[in-house]
C-alpha cells in the first residue's frame, strides 16, 4: 500500500511500518510517498528519530502519541442502504456525550438507549466530539487527530455501529467537530508543516489564510467530508466558528458549505452544517445566493440567556443585559438580543439584526441547556438544581412552541439530578495539574472557593456526571419526561407550532406573563410567584396541554404561579 504525508520544507521523511523504516519520495508539491506493507505506522521527519502519528490518521489504538493504524472504511458492513436522511426543518435535537450518557460510556452502550430517544420524539442525535484526544475521559474539545475516533468509546467501527443503529430507528446523527484549535497534548501538526497560526482562548489555531494555507484548508474540508461520507453522519456542528481566523475573500465556512452541498447531491441525502458562533451575525445562515456563507443553522445563545435569566433570576456576567424588561419577548421575536446594540459584558456594541421577514426560525437552535451552559458553571449544576419544576416546564413549553429548532441536553427531559461537570484525564502530571489549577483560579475570580470547584482530573468528577437511568421512572422525573414527550408530539402534530416564519410570530408580555401566538394556538405562561389572568385575543376552544392547574375559559387564561397552558382557539 501507499503511505503519504504533507511535509513541506523537509529534506528527508521516513515512514516506520511495523517497526521497519522506509524512505519516502518527495513529489506533487511537498507530499511524500512510500510503498510499504504493514498495519501500524508513524512518520520520522528529517534526521529526528521520534516517530509521529499521521496527521490524517484514521485510527489511534495506542492513543494520540502512539503509531497510527491502517483502517479500511470499505470493510464495515453497513445496513442503512435505505436511509435517505433528514432535513433540519421540523427536527428536534438531543445533545449527548458518549462517555457519560450511559454507565458503559461507549457507542455500544449508547445504542441500548436509542429507543428512549425515539419514544421521546427526537429526530437528530447530536454527539459531542468523538475524535482522538489524550487520556480516556474528556469532553472531546481537546482533540488533536481529527480523523481518528476515540478508542475508549469504541473506535471507528464502534461509531459506525452507532450511526447505523440510529439510522435503523429513523434518527439522524449530528457530529460536533472542532476546527478552531487543537488540544494541549499530542498536537504534532506543526512539526509537519505550517498548520498553526497564533493562539486563541483554547489553544493553537490553524493557518487558514497565510503561506501554505491551501493544504491546511484542504485538511479541514477533507476531514469534514470524511465524517459525512465515510461515517454516514448527517450533519456537523461546527464548534466556535468565531475563532476561525480567516481573512481570505472566500471564508473557510463558505468553501466548506459549497463542498458539502456537492457531496449531498452525490449522496442523494440532506447534509447539514450547524455553526456555534458568538458573532450574532445572520450572514452565517444566509444562503450564498444572498451573499451569505450558506450554513444551514446556528446555535442561539441569546435565546438561552434570555430564558435562563427569566427562569433563574441569575444576572451575573453575560446574563446582566438579559435582565432588561422585555428581554425574553424581544429575543423570541428577533432571535438576537444583541443586534447592533450595546453589550455590557463586551463593553461595545455587538451583533447585527436578523431580517425576520426572510430568515426562517428553523435556522436557529433554541435550548434551555447545553453542554457549555451547564459544564462551564463552577459546579456543573443543571437548571433543575435551582429552578422549580414549574419553571422548568414553562421554559420547555416556550422552547417547543417557538419557531426555532429545539434542542435538549441529555437528561434534561426528566430533570436529571446529576450535574454535568468539566473533566479531563491527561496522563501528563504537569498538564493535569495545570488544568486543575487553572480551573480553580478561574472560578476563584468569581468568588468560588477551591473546595467548591470539582477537581476536573478526579475520576469521581466523571462518575458524578453520568446519567442515572433509573430516574426517568421516579416521581418528579417521570412527570417531566411525560411533559417533554407531550410537547414534542404536539409540535409534530400541530403545524402552527413548528411554523418557522418569524413574521408569523407574535409575543405579548407584561410583568411575569407572556403569550406566544402560534396560528390559532396560544401558549400562555406565568413565570411569576402570583396568579395572573391573561388575554388570549380569541375564544378558547380546548386546552391541549397545561402545567400547574392552569386553565382557559372564554377569552382568558387563568395561570397559577409558575404554570402554562397551550390553548386552541375557535376558528
From TrEMBL:
<dbReference type="InterPro" id="IPR013783">
    <property type="entry name" value="Ig-like_fold"/>
</dbReference>
<protein>
    <recommendedName>
        <fullName>Malto-oligosyltrehalose trehalohydrolase</fullName>
        <ecNumber>3.2.1.141</ecNumber>
    </recommendedName>
</protein>
<dbReference type="Pfam" id="PF11941">
    <property type="entry name" value="DUF3459"/>
</dbReference>
<feature type="binding site">
    <location>
        <begin position="301"/>
        <end position="305"/>
    </location>
    <ligand>
        <name>substrate</name>
    </ligand>
</feature>
<dbReference type="InterPro" id="IPR014756">
    <property type="entry name" value="Ig_E-set"/>
</dbReference>
<dbReference type="InterPro" id="IPR022567">
    <property type="entry name" value="DUF3459"/>
</dbReference>
<keyword id="KW-0378">Hydrolase</keyword>
<comment type="pathway">
    <text>Glycan biosynthesis; trehalose biosynthesis.</text>
</comment>
<feature type="active site" description="Proton donor">
    <location>
        <position position="276"/>
    </location>
</feature>
<dbReference type="GO" id="GO:0033942">
    <property type="term" value="F:4-alpha-D-(1-&gt;4)-alpha-D-glucanotrehalose trehalohydrolase activity"/>
</dbReference>
<feature type="region of interest" description="Disordered">
    <location>
        <begin position="46"/>
        <end position="67"/>
    </location>
</feature>
<feature type="binding site">
    <location>
        <begin position="237"/>
        <end position="242"/>
    </location>
    <ligand>
        <name>substrate</name>
    </ligand>
</feature>
<feature type="site" description="Transition state stabilizer">
    <location>
        <position position="372"/>
    </location>
</feature>
<dbReference type="InterPro" id="IPR006047">
    <property type="entry name" value="GH13_cat_dom"/>
</dbReference>
<dbReference type="InterPro" id="IPR044901">
    <property type="entry name" value="Trehalose_TreZ_E-set_sf"/>
</dbReference>
<feature type="domain" description="Glycosyl hydrolase family 13 catalytic">
    <location>
        <begin position="95"/>
        <end position="445"/>
    </location>
</feature>
<keyword id="KW-0963">Cytoplasm</keyword>
<feature type="active site" description="Nucleophile">
    <location>
        <position position="239"/>
    </location>
</feature>
<feature type="compositionally biased region" description="Basic and acidic residues">
    <location>
        <begin position="53"/>
        <end position="62"/>
    </location>
</feature>
<dbReference type="GO" id="GO:0005737">
    <property type="term" value="C:cytoplasm"/>
</dbReference>
<dbReference type="InterPro" id="IPR017853">
    <property type="entry name" value="GH"/>
</dbReference>
<dbReference type="Pfam" id="PF00128">
    <property type="entry name" value="Alpha-amylase"/>
</dbReference>
<dbReference type="InterPro" id="IPR012768">
    <property type="entry name" value="Trehalose_TreZ"/>
</dbReference>
<feature type="binding site">
    <location>
        <begin position="371"/>
        <end position="376"/>
    </location>
    <ligand>
        <name>substrate</name>
    </ligand>
</feature>
<dbReference type="GO" id="GO:0005992">
    <property type="term" value="P:trehalose biosynthetic process"/>
</dbReference>
<keyword id="KW-0326">Glycosidase</keyword>
<comment type="similarity">
    <text>Belongs to the glycosyl hydrolase 13 family.</text>
</comment>
<keyword id="KW-0119">Carbohydrate metabolism</keyword>
Amino acid at each position: 500500500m501507499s503511505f503519504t504525508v504533507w511535509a513541506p520544507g523537509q529534506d528527508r521523511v521516513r515512514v516506520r511500518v511495523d517497526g521497519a523504516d522506509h524512505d519516502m519520495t518527495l513529489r506533487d508539491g511537498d507530499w511524500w510517498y512510500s510503498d510499504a506493507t504493514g498495519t501500524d505506522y508513524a512518520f520520522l521527519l528529517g534526521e529526528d528519530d521520534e516517530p509521529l502519528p499521521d496527521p490524517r490518521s484514521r485510527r489511534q489504538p495506542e492513543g494520540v502519541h502512539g503509531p497510527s493504524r491502517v483502517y479500511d472504511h470499505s470493510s464495515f458492513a453497513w445496513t442503512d442502504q435505505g436511509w435517505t436522511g433528514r432535513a433540519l426543518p421540523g427536527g428536534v435535537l438531543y445533545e449527548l456525550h458518549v462517555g457519560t450518557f450511559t454507565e458503559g460510556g461507549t457507542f455500544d452502550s449508547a445504542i441500548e438507549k436509542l429507543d428512549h430517544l425515539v419514544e421521546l420524539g427526537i429526530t437528530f442525535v447530536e454527539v459531542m466530539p468523538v475524535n482522538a484526544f489524550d487520556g480516556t475521559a474528556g469532553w472531546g474539545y481537546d482533540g488533536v487527530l481529527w480523523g481518528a475516533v476515540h478508542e475508549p468509546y469504541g473506535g471507528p467501527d464502534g461509531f459506525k455501529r452507532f450511526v447505523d443503529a440510529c439510522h435503523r430507528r429513523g434518527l439522524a446523527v449530528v457530529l460536533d467537530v472542532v476546527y478552531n484549535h487543537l488540544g494541549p497534548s499530542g498536537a504534532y501538526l506543526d512539526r509537519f508543516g505550517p498548520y498553526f497560526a497564533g493562539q486563541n482562548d483554547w489553544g493553537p489555531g490553524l493557518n487558514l489564510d497565510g503561506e501554505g494555507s491551501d493544504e491546511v484548508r484542504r485538511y479541514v474540508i477533507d476531514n469534514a467530508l470524511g465524517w459525512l461520507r465515510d461515517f454516514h453522519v448527517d450533519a456537523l456542528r461546527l464548534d466556535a466558528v468565531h475563532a476561525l481566523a480567516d481573512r481570505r475573500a472566500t471564508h473557510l465556512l463558505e468553501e466548506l458549505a459549497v463542498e458539502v452541498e456537492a457531496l449531498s447531491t452525490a449522496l442523494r441525502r440532506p447534509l447539514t452544517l450547524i455553526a456555534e458562533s458568538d458573532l450574532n451575525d445572520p450572514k452565517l445562515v444566509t444562503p450564498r445566493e444572498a451573499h451569505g456563507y450558506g450554513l444551514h443553522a446556528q446555535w442561539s445563545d441569546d435565546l438561552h440567556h434570555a430564558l435562563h435569566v427569566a427562569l433563574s433570576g441569575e444576572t451575573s456576567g453575560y446574563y446582566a443585559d438579559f435582565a432588561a424588561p422585555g428581554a425574553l419577548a424581544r429575543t423570541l421575536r428577533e432571535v438576537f438580543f444583541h443586534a447592533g446594540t450595546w453589550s455590557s459584558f463586551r463593553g461595545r456594541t455587538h451583533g447585527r439584526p436578523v431580517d425576520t421577514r426572510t430568515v426562517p426560525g428553523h435556522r436557529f437552535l433554541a435550548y434551555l441547556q447545553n453542554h457549555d451552559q451547564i459544564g462551564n458553571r463552577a459546579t456543573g449544576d443543571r437548571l433543575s438544581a435551582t429552578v422549580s419544576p414549574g419553571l422548568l416546564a414553562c421554559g420547555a413549553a416556550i422552547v417547543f412552541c417557538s419557531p426555532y429548532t429545539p434542542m435538549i441536553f441529555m437528561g434534561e427531559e426528566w430533570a436529571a439530578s446529576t450535574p454535568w461537570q468539566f473533566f479531563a484525564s491527561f496522563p501528563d502530571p504537569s498538564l493535569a495539574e495545570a488544568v486543575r489549577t487553572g480551573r480553580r483560579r478561574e472560578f476563584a475570580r468569581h468568588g468560588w472557593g477551591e473546595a467548591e470547584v470539582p477537581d476536573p482530573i478526579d475520576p469521581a468528577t466523571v462518575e458524578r456526571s453520568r446519567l442515572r437511568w433509573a430516574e426517568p421512572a421516579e416521581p418528579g422525573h417521570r412527570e417531566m419526561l411525560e411533559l417533554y414527550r407531550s410537547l414534542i408530539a404536539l409540535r409534530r402534530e400541530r403545524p402552527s407550532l413548528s411554523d418557522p416564519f418569524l413574521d408569523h410570530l407574535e409575543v405579548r408580555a407584561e410583568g411575569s406573563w407572556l403569550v406566544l401566538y402560534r396560528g390559532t394556538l396560544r401558549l400562555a405562561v406565568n413565570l411569576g410567584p402570583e396568579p395572573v389572568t391573561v388575554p388570549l385575543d380569541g375564544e378558547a376552544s380546548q386546552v391541549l396541554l397545561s402545567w400547574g392547574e392552569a386553565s382557559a375559559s372564554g377569552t382568558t387564561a387563568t395561570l397559577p404561579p409558575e404554570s402554562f397552558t397551550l390553548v386552541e382557539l375557535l376558528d
